[in-house]
């Protein structure tokens, strides 16, 4: 369970799987941790050297006061790859992690093999939405927004059928650092890759959730239309597709990353 320091911030990451396998970096969503990927780890580790990083402000990484920028988070990811060291990796991310996957494909294409931006958008939400989220969380704490977030993360049927999983993610969310959460909200508030993603050259699989209110299928379709040659996978889930439809997500992503070009 190694740590590194980047720009004065301690970043935690985990490495699993064969040392001689192709590298796969998994990037979590806003308000979660590396544990987001527990449903994928066993299968992915059979084929890849899997790296999971707690983004700045989350999990076991430090949470310096924000605001953060998407570029700052992207350079953090590159620093983790440097520390291992890994010259290249597949990048798979959910929501904020998916936006980072696209940023890395644009700004460090020589470090990226294939990317899987899941449940994300090139412009995720609006400036006013994230500014209000920061204001509410800062004034009232993460418990004040937890119900709204959980309803976006999981469908009503999943919440009813898998309460233990939902409660685990609620606890993950409400124990997130407030500074870290607000800092990462600012990164989402200010990031806009809409005019750039047509330049992505990495083979791309866009994953969407049919019931995702946070990043509806249409915004994933827009990515797929603008990124040359991008493929698309839609799952019967809300925002955290890799949790709600773990088997289908794992199979689809594994097949995409393993298939010869």
Any descriptors?
single chain, 261 residues, alpha/beta, Rossmann fold, six-stranded mixed β-sheet, 8 strands
Can you characterise this structure?
It is built from eleven helices and eight strands. It has helices at residues 41-45, 70-83, 96-107, 127-140, 143-153, 156-161, 163-174, 178-190, 217-226, 241-244, 246-258; strands at residues 3-6, 9-16, 23-27, 49-53, 89-94, 112-118, 205-209, 231-235. The strands form two sheets. A six-stranded mixed β-sheet has the order 1-2-4-3-5-6. Strands 7-8 form a two-stranded parallel sheet. It starts with a strand and ends with a helix. The mean pLDDT is 96.
* CATH topology group: Rossmann fold
Per CATH, the superfamily is Alpha/Beta hydrolase fold, catalytic domain
Mean pLDDT: 96
| Series of secondary-structure elements, N-terminal to C-terminal | EEEHEHEHEHHHHHEHEHH
Number of helices: 11
The total domain count is 1
**Fraction of residues in H or I helices:** 40-55%
Low-confidence stretches: none
Distance between the termini: 33 Å
Query: What's the level 1 CATH class?
Result: Alpha Beta
**Alpha-carbon Rg, integer:** 17 Å
CATH architecture: 3-Layer(aba) Sandwich
The major beta sheet can be summarized as: 6 strands, mixed
Which term fits the overall shape? globular
């Amino acid at each position: 369970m190694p740590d590194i320091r980047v720009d004065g911030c301690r970043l935690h990451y985990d490495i699993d799987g064969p040392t001689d396998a192709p590298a796969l970096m998994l990037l979590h969503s806003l308000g979660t941790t590396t544990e987001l990927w527990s449903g994928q780890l066993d299968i992915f580790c059979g084929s890849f050297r899997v790296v999971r990083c707690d983004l700045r402000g989350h999990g076991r990484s430090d949470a310096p006061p924000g605001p953060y920028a998407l570029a700052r988070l992207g350079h953090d990811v590159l620093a983790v790859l440097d520390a291992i060291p890994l010259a290249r990796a597949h990048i798979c991310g959910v929501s904020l992690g998916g936006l980072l996957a696209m940023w890395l494909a644009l700004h460090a294409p020589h470090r990226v093999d294939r990317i899987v931006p899941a449940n994300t958008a090139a412009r995720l939400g609006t400036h006013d939405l994230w500014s209000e989220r920061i204001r509410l969380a800062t004034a009232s704490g993460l418990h004040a927004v937890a119900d709204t977030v959980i309803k976006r993360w999981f469908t009503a049927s999943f919440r009813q059928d898998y309460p233990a999983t939902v409660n685990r993610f609620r606890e993950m969310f409400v124990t997130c650092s407030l500074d870290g959460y607000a800092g990462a909200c600012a990164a989402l508030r200010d990031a806009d890759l809409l005019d750039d993603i047509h330049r992505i050259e990495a083979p791309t699989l866009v994953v969407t959730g049919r019931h995702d209110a946070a990043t509806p299928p249409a915004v994933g379709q827009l990515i797929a239309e603008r990124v040359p040659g991008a493929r698309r996978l839609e799952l019967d889930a809300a925002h955290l597709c890799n949790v709600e439809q773990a088997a289908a997500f794992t199979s689809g992503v594994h097949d995409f990353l393993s298939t010869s070009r």
